[in-house]
Amino acid sequence: MTTPPISASPAFQLERHASGQLLLVAANGEQHLGVVPVRAFPIAAPDEGISLISSEGHELVWLERLSELPLPQRSLLEEELALRDFVPEITRLISVSSFGTPSTWAVETDRGDTSFVLKGEEDIRRLSRQSLLIAAGHGVHFSVKDMGALDRASRRLLERFL
């Protein structure tokens, strides 16, 4: 079994509509406005397993890998996914209001300084030995990709919650 070349055209066309939404045109000519790309595994395999969902919530296309798409379509999907999967990376813990929960954390991220409320210790999920996903009280998730890369003071604050 051979894999198709990266430049192969998929059985659909994808473009940005004048409204700003994604428009998918199927091989049979059927048009779907408001298509939303969804990652199956946004953290573990962000470029694999992408589903294109209609505005009615039905899967229209399953993509094994983003790299299989021609560059214009891949770029459109990457733009949409970046908006949908907003997960700032914590690069430093500035302060924590208390070592119990709920507590207010002031952090430095790759997107700038911010603060959030950690409702409970269960909102810190270990993804691997060195990486964490932290659910803030307002719905945004923050990542710590490598705890070892944090400064000593940040690691000490974080270890009190692990």
Using only C-alpha atoms, the radius of gyration works out to: 20 Å
The biggest beta sheet is recorded as:
5 strands, antiparallel
What general form does the structure show?
elongated
Q: Which percent range describes the beta-strand content?
A: 35-45%
Spatially, the strands of the biggest sheet line up as: 1-2-3-4-5
Number of strands: 11
Helix content estimate: 10-25%
Order of helices and strands: EEEEEHEEEEEEH
Provide the low-confidence segments as ranges: 1-9
* Average pLDDT rating: 88
Number of helices: 2
Which structural class should the secondary elements be placed in? mainly beta
- Cα separation of the termini: 47 Å
Task: Write a structural description.
- The protein has 162 residues and is mostly beta strands.
- Helices cover 14% and strands 40% of the residues.
- Strands 1-2-3-4-5 form a five-stranded antiparallel sheet. A three-stranded antiparallel sheet has the order 6-7-8.
- Strand 4 and strand 5 form a beta hairpin.
- The longest helix has 14 residues.
